[in-house]
């Protein structure tokens, strides 16, 4: 049971491993270590969904991978957010605000890059579907997204 959901966090978008856009065709925004390191213990690795906003921009649906990315054998835990929206340019250095409202599945390994991409696309569709539920829609309008963007925070 993840008592910490919904979980709100905010931080600067940093350069990740460079695989999201280039190798997977699914761009992600990565949080700096300080955000990852302060996750509550009951938010384990896996795939989450929720809402995200860049800077003071619009709030969009998102899906997030938290963990070690077993396919790539990462040695550092990461939080990689795919904002379900098409942006004209990258947003490194901007402030990303997210609220994680639910959990889709545990992290797993894949036998091929195609299998990984298919799983991510399935997760995106699942996130879209779940975020249309009334109990999740309310978080899109949360005051958190209108709060001071310079306040880096984690919590709920």
UniProtKB/TrEMBL annotation:
Span of domain Riboflavin kinase: 2-132
GO MF annotations in UniProt: ATP binding; metal ion binding; riboflavin kinase activity
Main enzyme class: transferase
Family annotation (SMART domains): Flavokinase
EC numbers for this chain: 2.7.1.26
Chemical reaction(s) catalysed: riboflavin + ATP = FMN + ADP + H(+)
Taxonomic superkingdom: Eukaryota
GO annotation terms (biological process): FMN biosynthetic process; riboflavin biosynthetic process
A Pfam family of this chain: Flavokinase
An annotated GO cellular component: mitochondrion
Cofactor: Zn(2+)
Keywords (A to Z) from UniProt: ATP-binding, Flavoprotein, FMN, Kinase, Metal-binding, Nucleotide-binding, Transferase, Zinc
Record pathway: Cofactor biosynthesis; FMN biosynthesis; FMN from riboflavin (ATP route): step 1/1
Function per UniProt: Catalyzes the phosphorylation of riboflavin (vitamin B2) to form flavin-mononucleotide (FMN), hence rate-limiting enzyme in the synthesis of FAD. Essential for TNF-induced reactive oxygen species (ROS) production. Through its interaction with both TNFRSF1A and CYBA, physically and functionally couples TNFRSF1A to NADPH oxidase. TNF-activation of RFK may enhance the incorporation of FAD in NADPH oxidase, a critical step for the assembly and activation of NADPH oxidase.
Protein name: Riboflavin kinase
Organism: Scleropages formosus (Asian bonytongue)
């Amino acid at each position: 049971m993840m008592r910490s959901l919904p979980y709100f966090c905010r931080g600067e978008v940093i350069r990740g491993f460079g695989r999201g856009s280039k190798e997977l065709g699914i761009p992600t925004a990565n949080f700096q270590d300080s955000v990852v390191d302060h996750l509550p213990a009951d938010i384990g690795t896996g795939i989450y969904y929720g809402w995200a906003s860049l800077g003071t921009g619009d709030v969009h649906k998102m899906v997030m991978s938290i963990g070690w990315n077993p396919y790539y054998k990462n040695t550092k835990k990461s939080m990689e957010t795919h904002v379900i929206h098409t942006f004209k340019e990258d947003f490194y250095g901007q402030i990303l605000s997210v609220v994680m409202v639910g959990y889709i599945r545990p992290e797993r390994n894949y036998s091929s890059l195609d299998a990984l991409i298919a799983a991510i696309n399935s997760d995106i569709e699942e996130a879209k579907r779940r975020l249309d539920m009334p109990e999740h829609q309310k978080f899109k309008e949360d005051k958190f997204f209108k709060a001071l963007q310079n306040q880096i925070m984690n919590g709920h």
